[in-house]
Design brief:
By secondary structure, the chain is α/β, with parallel strands linked by helices. The chain has 9 helices and 15 strands. It has a 7-stranded parallel β-sheet with strand order 3-2-1-4-5-7-12, with helices on both faces. Strands 6-15 form a two-stranded parallel sheet. Strands 8-11 form a two-stranded parallel ribbon. Helix 3 runs parallel beside helix 4, helix 5 runs parallel beside helix 7 and helix 5 crosses helix 9.
Length: 306
């Protein structure tokens, strides 16, 4: 088997690449910033010629389309860019597959943000989509394109809707990473005030370790049914306040919190947990990592990085 991972140098791409290599796959990838070298293709998702060149050159059996913009809060500031990158970028990938080799199996990555305000509580794939953010709109459009290409052009594509995923290596802009970085800095640099900035702590979210997410993508690339959509989630809800409390327990200093308005979204969903029964029935997948272990690794990762 050979995979082409768009966005291979990103958070999930790094973990998925390692997983596939450990399973004996050949892996190549695309990135927008780096220069081309062996196994790495420079691709702008808006440039279909570059996409076609990468697909023809790598000759993958499977494509995992991970490249895109993922900071939900920033999507309100750059809605056009999110639509172009996440929605039109997905269309361009699928259209390039149609033109080069329609037999390639494709996994496109959406988000639980596709469900939006109508999806409070435990959410399955039949939930009506009412996205709140420009990010959610861009990802729901990408999902619709995936179903369109599966039904109209018989491309073997499955669309995944991962709920919140966390783990070592995640960049800033996400709650667990933001908290862990701030706490690690305060403990490393004793001259810093023991205060961290927070956003909304009352929301309840479904967190899954990125390595479990990568395993689900792998399983669905093999066993997923073309044209179908699958939630990827732990099925457990955790309040953001409790996530912060676990991370604060690793601190040797007593830390205070202050609300930073820039960390608040214009609109937010108070409760969202994923029903992943469809994924489990198709693949037998289940999350293996506990949130406590994942958060400990995130904190230790930031200790080494700050």
């Amino acid at each position: 088997m050979k995979a082409l991972i768009t966005g291979i140098t990103g958070f999930v791409g790094t973990h998925l690449s390692l997983l596939l290599k450990n399973k004996g796959w050949d892996v190549e990838g695309t990135t927008r910033q780096s220069r081309e070298n062996h196994g790495l293709w420079k691709v702008d998702l808006q440039n279909q010629e570059q996409l076609i060149k990468a697909i023809k050159g790598s000759k993958p059996t499977h494509i995992f389309h991970l490249a895109g913009l993922s900071d939900v809060r920033k999507s309100w500031d750059f809605p056009h860019e999110y639509l172009r990158t996440n929605a039109i970028g997905t269309y361009n990938v699928l259209d390039a597959v149609r033109k080069v080799n329609p037999k390639i199996r494709v996994v496109t990555v959406g988000s639980s943000e596709e469900y939006g305000i109508g999806a409070q509580g435990i959410v399955d794939e039949n939930q009506l989509l009412r996205p709140l953010s420009p990010y959610g709109i861009s990802k729901s459009t990408a999902g619709m394109y995936s179903v369109h290409f599966a039904r109209s052009y018989h491309i073997h594509v499955v669309h995944v809707r991962p709920f919140n995923h966390i783990g070592p290596g995640q960049r800033e802009g996400f709650a667990a990473a933001d908290f862990a970085k701030q706490i690690a800095r305060i403990n490393k640099y004793k001259e810093l005030p023991a205060v961290i900035s927070i956003g909304n702590l009352e929301s309840i979210r479904d967190f899954t370790d990125v390595r479990d997410i990568a395993e689900a993508y792998y399983q669905l690339s093999i066993k997923g049914e073309s044209g179908e959509i699958y939630n990827v989630a732990s099925g457990r809800g955790v309040k953001i306040k409790d996530l912060l409390s676990i991370l604060l327990s690793y601190s040797s200093r007593k830390i205070q919190t202050i609300v930073d308005d820039s960390r608040l979204r214009p609109a937010d969903i108070p409760l969202q947990i994923g029903n992943c029964n469809k994924l489990k029935q198709a693949t037998g997948w289940k999350s293996a990592m506990s949130i406590e272990n994942t958060l400990k690794e995130i904190y230790e990762d930031w200790q080494s990085r700050v």
